[in-house]
Design a protein that fits this description.
The chain is built from 17 helices and seven strands. The chain is of the alpha+beta class. Helix 6 packs antiparallel against helix 10 and helix 14 (278-296) packs across helix 17 (328-338). It is globular, with a radius of gyration of 24 Å. The chain has a five-stranded mixed β-sheet. The protein has a two-stranded antiparallel sheet with strand order 1-2. The chain has helices at residues 13-19, 24-30, 35-38, 47-61, 66-72, 81-87, 92-106, 140-158, 176-183, 213-226, 234-245, 253-259, 264-273, 278-296, 301-307, 313-324, 328-338, and strands at residues 4-6, 44-46, 110-116, 124-131, 165-167, 187-188, 195-199.
């Protein structure tokens, strides 16, 4: 299986190569990549190719700390919409959890998590950076770049924090003092994990910049509706597909199966194995869409019925009574008074 990552992961590499006396555009062209591909939040690149580009640049420029230099030239914006969601979380810990949840949008072969200190000191935690896909070979320069950027992003999120130590799962690629100067903390090499050791209180620290909860909610909803974690099953893929299509094209199992490159009967069997069905998922997506339209807009009920693919206002009324035990008018009125949806868990 070929793992794709966002081309933005190596954004700025062409300029860095130029600054070091090489030909950035020329090197990228050898791998079928244009500099403009890296500036897009939607361009994709095989993870193996990204690693090869870093390795080639390191060799040709005789620059063993190339990964750290690339990290120093980047910022959180290379995460695209995910950067907006993370940057508008309330605390640094919330931001890390958000990044962990949606990092697959940026790179399916990475996992990010916070956990206990491997050295078991009281009041100390860790942020672990893991490569998890066997089809992506380990590339030390990519690891340096990734962990280095994580450190820089934590500085941005917190406004400055005390890094207690760094674990890297490979030997030093250059003089150890280069690593110590970059991270400003002791670095251990050839470890079993890649992580940053941090004060546990960092996770509760408020974000350094003002946050916009509504913007965060909007971006998280966008990420939820447009991307499916590859670790999830068929039901999650169908739910995402139905959510995108509802109100724009007729939602049928044969159409969704085609999008998922699967025969409809195979899709039905996989959904049954997961304890659900296409009609059950469609009903669930309609329920949440109808609630959102009833409580956050003044759209007429007949139009809402059309947007959730129900045959008129009477059908909407019957469905809403079944979902929430109330009429559309009552749901609209009561939810605005209490801000709590009957029978729906808000995200």
């Amino acid at each position: 299986m070929r793992i794709q990552i966002r081309a933005a992961a190596i954004r700025g590499i062409d300029r860095l190569i130029d600054d070091l006396g090489g030909d950035g555009a020329g090197l990228l062209a050898e791998f079928g990549v244009r500099p403009g591909d890296l500036d897009s939040d939607h361009g994709l690149l095989p993870a193996v190719t990204a690693g090869r580009i870093l390795r080639s640049a390191t060799t040709r420029l005789d620059c063993p700390d190339f990964g750290l230099r690339l990290a120093a030239s980047q910022d959180m914006s290379m995460l695209g919409p995910l950067a907006v969601a993370v940057g508008n979380c309330d605390t640094v810990g919330d931001g890390l959890d958000c990044a962990s949840r949606f990092l697959f949008v940026h790179n399916q072969g990475l996992r990010l998590s916070r956990g206990p200190d491997p050295e078991r000191y009281a009041g100390v935690g860790a942020v672990e950076y893991r490569l998890v896909h066997p089809d992506v070979p380990f590339e030390p320069q990519s690891m340096d770049a990734g962990l280095g950027l994580l450190h820089r992003n934590l500085i941005t999120m917190s406004g400055g924090y005390e890094l207690l130590g760094v674990y890297l799962p490979h030997p030093p690629l250059t003089d150890e003092s280069v690593y110590t100067e970059f991270f400003g903390a002791p670095v251990r090499f050839d470890t079993d994990q890649a992580l940053l050791r941090v004060p546990a209180k960092l996770f509760a620290q408020p974000m350094s910049a003002p946050v916009n909860p509504e913007l965060r909610r909007m971006v998280v909803e966008y990420l939820e509706s447009h991307y499916v974690d590859p670790r999830e099953g068929a039901a999650a893929s169908v739910r995402s597909s139905v959510g995108r299509a509802l109100g724009t094209v007729p939602v049928r199992i044969d159409l969704v199966a085609k999008w998922l490159h699967m025969h409809p009967r195979m899709l039905q069997r996989r959904l049954a194995d997961e304890g659900t069905s296409f009609q059950g998922i469609l009903d669930e997506v309609r329920k949440h869409a109808a609630y959102r339209l009833l409580t956050t807009t003044d759209i007429p009920f007949s139009q809402i019925a059309s947007l959730v693919e129900l045959a008129g206002q009477a059908a909407l009324t019957r469905a809403v009574r079944r979902w929430f035990g109330r009429t559309p008018t009552q749901v609209r009125r009561d939810a605005r008074e209490t801000h709590q949806p009957p029978g729906v868990t808000q995200r």
